[in-house]
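Database export, one record per block. Field names are fixed; values are copied verbatim from the stored entry.
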Amino acid sequence: MGTEILIYIAGFTGLLFLLRFFGKSLRFILRVGVSTLLGGVLLTVLNTFGAAWGIGIAVNPFTAFLAGVLGLPGVAALVFIRLWL
């Protein structure tokens, strides 16, 4: 029973060390991931309501990433590029 407690304490200490060591990079990766998901949602909403005007942007990881990271200016740039090409 005593060795189990020591193993749990060692595991918890190791987990705290890893979170402290990789915490900032994990937070950045999580933030980019959430932004990409929100960009995909934004493009889906644009495709739903923009269909009446013939505006549609393909929803793929690249366009979702651009829309998520750049926000509304990124979506506007994607629409402009789509209409221009």
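Remark 1: DSSP finds three helices and no strands in the chain.
Remark 2: The mean pLDDT is 83.
End of record.
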